[in-house]
Amino acid sequence: MDMVIEGDCYQQGEFKHLEIGIDNGKIVKVAKSIDCDKRMNFGSKKILPAAIDPHVHFRDPGMTHKEDFRSGSIAALHGGVTCVFDMPNTKPPTTSIDFLNEKRGIALSRSHVDFGLFAGVQPGIDVEGLAEKVIGFKLYMAGTTGNLLVPSLRTIGSELSRIAKCGKVLAVHAEDESLRDKERDEKNLHDHLAGRNNDCETSAIRKIADAAPDCRLHICHVSARESIPLVFEQKNMTAEVSPHHLLLDRDRPIGSLGKVNPPLRTRADRQALYLAFKQGRFDMIASDHAPHTMDEKSDDFQHAPCGMPGVETMYPLMLQLVRERHLALATVVRTMCERPGEIFKIPKGKIEPGYDADLVVVDFMEGSEIRGDRLLTKCGWSAFDGMSCIFPKAVFAGGELMMEDGSQSGDRMGREVIGR
């Protein structure tokens, strides 16, 4: 056995003072006492599973002035995230075996956290060949960063059928392009919402449910209150929500820093999402980490790009809500650790034998404040600036101590995860 970690471990819904035996990056034993010479004792600090972020845009390759796998993965580590799933709307887009292999090589050489790669859905893609190498497929039903828009599901009927047969998750950016107001002159967050209203999202969810009844559908970044019953009435559908749709809305005075797709919506939408999340109705929470430089975001609102960083702040924000008793820890661990591992069929997200030794150590008595200029994401800003949070005191990835007291301590490189 390589080492033992001791502390108040979150296991099976409660804290127990336990020892975690780790060998070759895996948890091999969890007990009150384990014999091992190498050990770390965290006393009364809390040991939780590290988070899985199933939705990031690390911009590598092609847009690395915004982020890359090195900077994005280090930011993830400091936020308690040890596995990320990267989206395909890069330059070039991840739509072929060659482009996938290019991105894979970059990630293997730069990422400090484990990673999975999504392939973009386009007419004519090699579904079967890609399925063997990706964590899932991503479908864009509306225009956003990149050029992967599929305006009509009729053009990919064969691809949807083959994705269903291969059994991989089909993640969907659910906005109906035909309902967007593309001619609107946008000056603020209210205008951006008016151009991509709630009907855009609900219409897209209905369309993909009808077009792909046999796929393992996953609806990304649900944002409209009318979407909540839609995603939970489909047996073949899971859903995620993002921190910015839970905590921010169109009235937040942050200008283009809050310009995202789908848009920040009304207070009523945000409250409905938050209540549904608190009740445990969402499967996952995902950052949709989509950084742009401050110079790009400082352009006039109409031309400022859509997206905001979030991989570094997602877990700390949710832990603060637990500290304030607004959320149950069980809800946070379920949506950030357990369910992503279950849905994508990877051995992560639980402190149990057989699972990867991906762990965070947390002191709920020691809070912090988000400061964009102190974050490690390359873009250097946050729409959550000034909000209270709890950053982890230590982070283990594959059994190796990677971060302690805000400083990177390990040099382990991330490994690719594919799932089943």
Protein described:
There is one protein chain. This protein is α/β, with parallel strands linked by helices and 420 residues long. It has two domains: 3-48 and 353-408, Roll (Urease, subunit C, domain 1), CATH 2.30.40; 50-343, Metal-dependent hydrolases (TIM Barrel, Alpha-Beta Barrel), CATH 3.20.20.140. It has twelve helices and 18 strands. It has an eight-stranded mixed β-sheet with strand order 3-2-1-4-13-16-17-18. Helix 1 links the parallel strand 5 (51-56) and strand 6 (81-86). The longest helix is centred in the C-terminal third of the chain and has 15 residues, at 329-343.
Strand and helix map with partners:
Blueprint: E1 3-11, E2 14-23, E3 26-31, E4 39-49, E5 51-56, H1 69-78, E6 81-86, H2 97-110, E7 114-120, H3 127-131, E8 136-140, H4 157-166, E9 169-173, H5 189-195, H6 198-211, E10 216-219, H7 227-232, E11 237-241, H8 243-247, H9 267-278, E12 284-285, H10 294-297, H11 314-323, H12 329-343, E13 359-362, E14 368-369, E15 388-389, E16 394-397, E17 400-404, E18 407-408
Parallel strand pairs: 1-4, 5-6, 6-7, 7-8, 8-9, 9-10, 10-11, 11-12
Antiparallel strand pairs: 1-2, 2-3, 4-13, 13-16, 14-15, 16-17, 17-18
